[in-house]
Amino acid sequence: MMRAVIRNLYLAALAIFLLTPMLVVVVFSFDANRFPTLPWGGFTLAWHREALGDALIVSAMWNSLIVSLGTAVLATILGFCAAYLDYRYRFFGKRSLMLVIAVPPAVPVTILGMAMLAALSRTPMFGTPLGVIVCHVAIAVSFAMALIRLRLGDLGDDLEQAAWNLGASQRNGLLHVVIPFCRPSLIAAFCLSAAVSLDEFMVAWFVGGVNETLSVRVFNLLLGQVNPKINAIGTLVLATSLVLVSIAQMSARVGGTRKDAA
Amino acid sequence: MTARLEKTQAITPAGGRTRAGNRAVLPLVLGLPVALWQLAFFVLPVIFLIVITFWKVRSFRLEPAFDLGNWEKVLTSTPFQRALVYTTEVAAIASLLCMLIAFPAAHAIALGLSETARRRWIAFLIIPVFSSYILKVYAWQVVLSPGGVVNVSLAALGLPQVDLLGGALSLNIGLLTLTLPVVTLILTFALMGVDRSLLEAARNLGASGGQVLMQVTLPAIRSGVGLAAVTAFLMSFGDYASPVFLTGSNPPTLSILIVDTVKSGSQWPRASVIGVSMLVILALAFVTVQFLTQRRAGGAR
Question: Which of these, A88, A175, B101, B178, has the minimum number of CB atoms within 10 Å of its CB?
Answer without folding.
Answer: A175
